[in-house]
Design brief:
This protein has 268 residues and is α/β, with parallel strands linked by helices. It has 3 domains: 53 residues; 65 residues; 140 residues, Rossmann fold (3-Layer(aba) Sandwich). It is built from 6 helices and 12 strands. The strands form 3 sheets. A 6-stranded mixed β-sheet has the order 7-8-9-10-11-12, with no helix packed on it. Strands 1-3-2 form a 3-stranded mixed β-sheet, covered by helices on one side.
């Protein structure tokens, strides 16, 4: 009987109503801690948003560009006021198509930090242009028209003598003999390797080529031995610079021991 009374007394002590105040106090403390954590997270998010909204790209490095200066590339890509915002630019770069820039195939943006980017430019491989309906139609090594503009691109020769119908952007130039594009690529490549600039390359019906360099007409003939013809031209040009005349390199003979060329001067 005494044991039962002692057990009942113990149970009464466990459910002592005086302990409810302590329980309520601990519950309130936990609620306050949760509120503080929530407000702390909200504050952190706000601070992060403020930092992201205020971070601006300040350093730009551009590589692979020859047609545009680095400043022009930056101005074209980051043309809007928000484009230099680090967070906006990162999201835009990953979720949207890049801007279309004339003579540029594509570009990549690599991040060094939230304030510094490296822009890698991949230019279109343009070998020449033809005039069509008051526009310069630039084409690549495969004869694909890649740009139509009134702008004349420095270092790219005009190609004349080609017969074609209507020209459509991003399509092949509709010429009868596709061999001409391989000849143009071979010729312009040799000119570039020897640092020779010409304003025009004219072809006849047999695909014989004539260069126009200032006041000098250089008749090259067919595509055979073209690299050696241009190599010879590189050596001759300093001797006839500033003169007006016609230079015939079509009779170049690789097996000959002497240079084979004829230069006829014209009256100034």
């Amino acid at each position: 009987m005494d044991r039962k009374i002692r057990n009942i007394n113990r149970n009464r002590e466990f459910f002592d109503p005086d302990d409810t105040d302590d329980y309520d106090y601990r519950s309130e403390q936990k609620k306050k801690e949760k509120h503080l954590i929530r407000w702390g997270m909200v504050l952190m998010l706000l601070l992060t948003a403020i930092v992201l909204a205020s971070a601006r790209i300040k350093n730009f490095s551009v590589i692979g560009n020859t047609r545009y200066t680095s400043e022009e590339i930056v101005d074209l890509i980051f043309s809007d006021s928000w484009d230099t915002n680090s967070f906006y630019c990162f999201c835009k770069d990953k979720t949207r198509e890049h801007k279309q820039i004339p003579f540029i195939q594509r570009y990549d943006i690599d991040w060094e930090s939230p304030f510094s980017v490296v822009i890698t430019v991949y230019e279109k491989n343009i070998v020449g242009y033809v005039d069509y309906m008051s526009s310069h139609m630039y084409f690549d090594k495969d004869g694909i028209v890649v740009e139509s503009t009134g702008e004349k691109l420095e270092g790219i020769p005009m190609i004349t003598g080609l017969s074609f119908g209507s020209i459509v952007l991003y399509r092949e130039l509709p010429v009868q003999n596709m061999q001409v594009f391989r000849d143009i690529l071979n010729l312009t490549g040799a000119l570039s390797d020897n640092n020779i600039k010409c304003s025009e390359i004219a072809y006849d019906n047999l695909l014989n080529a004539t260069l126009y360099i200032d006041d000098i007409e250089v008749y090259l003939g067919g595509n055979e031995n073209m690299e050696m013809k241009i190599f010879t031209l590189r050596d001759i040009l300093p001797k006839i610079q500033g003169m007006k005349g016609e230079l015939n390199l079509s009779i170049y003979n690789e097996s000959s021991d002497h240079e084979s060329y004829i230069f006829k001067t014209k009256k100034q």
